[in-house]
Amino acid sequence: MRMLDRYIGKSVILGILTTLLVLIILISFFALIEEIEDVGKGDYRTLDVFLYILFLVPRQAYEVFPIAVLLGSLVGLGGLASHSELTAMRTAGVSLGRIVFSVMKAGVLIMLLVLFIGEVVAPESEQHAERIRAEKLYNQSTLKTRYGFWARDGESFINIRQILADSQLGDIYIYEFSPDGKLKIATHAASARYEDGRWLMRGINQSTFSDDSITSREIETATWESVLNPDLLDVVTRPSMLPALGLYQYIKFLHSNGLDAKTYEVALGEKIITPLTTLVMVFLSVPFVFGVLRSVSIGSRIFIGALLGVFFLVLNKAFGHMAIVYDLNVVFAVSFPGIMFLAIAVFLTRRVH
Fold first, then answer.
1. Region of poorest pLDDT, from 186-195, 213-222, 252-261, 292-301
2. Which of 192, 221, 243, 248 has its CA 20 to 30 A from that of 267?
3. How far apart are CA 16 and CA 56, in angstroms?
4. Region at 15 (left for phi over 0; alpha for psi -120 to 50; beta for the rest)
5. How far apart are CA 246 and CA 227, in angstroms?
6. How much is the pLDDT for 141?
7. Which domains does the chain have, with CATH numbers?
8. pLDDT score for 87
């Protein structure tokens, strides 16, 4: 039976990886067309666009994994069905349940791959991609560390410890240097908000350094002209760029500051449910190959699988947005599409029996 598991698993995994590669190429092509419009702005060149798209591939792969798993499983099992290999297995006494078990073992391997991409590869690669884009497009050198977000603005270095929703910042440090590298002014602001194309800072404590003295003063509010803009800063806290643990910690931080964390709660729920969804999609392919799609061509299977995959993505996105807009329960919103498809898979499998 181990040989059977390996044979079925190899067909399913190969089908999934091939489908994933095709989907990534298509998505990257359209992303390239969209991004190429920014070539020439700042120091953004064609090579930078290709690097940017390349580093976005893990995140794109993670997002389309459910579709790739369904389509790939249909292709892999469909190939076995087309050559009557599944029929031969059934004739030899291999039960449908045993075949499902072999397919699900391959699904577990794919699930582990999804976890690795979503938690380790995608967040880091997307951060690197956005850093490349920011440095070239906005002439901004940025860095995210455990001590917050760092950026350079001319002769000034900026450290932002808290990046909040709605274009708000907290715990901001600005260090201004002279051309010869000497520290001139050190400024700390408790908070800042982006209004009318500039930042309005509050709770300011500023120290001015000269050769023989240091002068300090406190300012209630002041405007801050900077090349930093909310679009650049929002990238740092984009849900897709945070692993599950990072999302959890950021949600706790938002709650402790009395801020809405619904968007990040939905993102965390989706990160938790996505690996399980891959198993559902693998399971769903079995009754389609043995049942309703048993006698149709590979092309028809791919078409129907694509429709189901797109329907799942639309349903998943719709419930995620409804959870944010209409304050739906997050657990229900992120799990309903997967539960619905699992119910369909169980129903169709019982029909096959």
1. 292-301
2. 192
3. 20
4. alpha
5. 27
6. 63
7. 2-138+240-352 (no CATH), 142-227 (2.30.30)
8. 73
Residue among 219, 220, 230 at smallest CA distance from 160? 230
CA 226/CA 198 separation, integer angstroms: 7
- C-alpha to C-alpha distance for 120 and 261, rounded to whole angstroms: 23
pLDDT per position as a tens digit, 209-266: 887 888 889 998 888 877 677 766 766 667 877 888 888 888 887 787 777 788 889 9
Residues 312 and 341 sit within 8 Å (Cβ to Cβ): yes
* Per-residue model confidence as pLDDT tens digits over 164-179: 766 788 899 999 988 8
Share of the chain above pLDDT 70, in %: 90
The separation between CA 218 and the C-alpha centre of its own chain, rounded to angstroms, equals 42
User: Global pTM?
Assistant: 0.77
If we measure between CA atoms, which residue out of 156, 157, 167, 155 comes closest to residue 197? 167
Neighbouring CB atoms inside 10 A of 30's CB total 9
The two three-digit tokens of residue 41, written as one number:
């702005």
CA 166/CA 199 separation, integer angstroms = 13
Q: Where are the alpha helices (DSSP H) in the chain?
A: 2-35, 46-82, 85-91, 96-116, 122-137, 230-234, 244-256, 262-290, 298-325, 330-352
**Hey, how many other C-beta atoms are within 10 angstroms of the C-beta on 343?**
11
Mean predicted confidence (pLDDT) in 302-326: 85
* Residue 137: alpha-carbon gap to chain centroid: 22
| Cα(76)–Cα(7) distance, integer angstroms | 11
Q: Round to whole Å and give the CA distance between 93 and 251.
A: 52
Question: Biggest alpha carbon distance in the chain?
Answer: 94
